Amino acid sequence: MRTEIVINRPAAEVAAYAADPDRAPDWYANIRQVEWRTPKPLAVGSEVAFVAQFLGRRLAYTYRVEEWEPERRFVMRTAEGPFPMETTYGWEPLGASATRMSLRNAGEPAGFSRLAAPFMARMMRRENRKDLRRLKEILEAAPVS
After folding, report:
1. How far apart are CA 55 and CA 3, in angstroms?
2. For a FRET experiment, which of 23, 34, 59, 92 has its CA 20 to 30 Å from that of 16?
3. Phi-psi region of 131 (alpha: psi -120 to 50; beta: other; left: phi over 0)
4. pLDDT (tens digit per residue) in 88-125
5. Cα 41 from Cα 46, distance rounded (Å)
6. Maximum CA extent, the chain
7. pTM of structure
8. Could you check whether the bond before residue 41 is cis, i.e. omega within 30 degrees of 0?
């Protein structure tokens, strides 16, 4: 499931903000807490624990950074948590002052039947759209650097 949005900011700014785990609670509505499990800065192999609230359930999981190409691509996979998940961010410059950002989540929530999977996918897509709109609002409201 892939969602994307155009943000009127340079790719370097969008990527730096979006890929910073400490900023995740600012733009991800469901993320409540972030804790680094490995030393900063962000690098391949970094591990970050998140606590989220989704559909009334508390979810605690740890992501490991699998790929990190600044201003281009960022991939994290769950190292531990309630179900396997991979999250991929992509940034495509659209000229000097705009960026197409994509957000893709792939995984199968454990404990949910196959019948619930389409519902879960729709809910995740809706949440991803809201999160990207919030990220766009934050970044486009910030002073131009």
Report:
1. 20
2. 59
3. alpha
4. 999 999 999 999 999 998 876 555 545 556 666 777 78
5. 8
6. 48
7. 0.88
8. yes
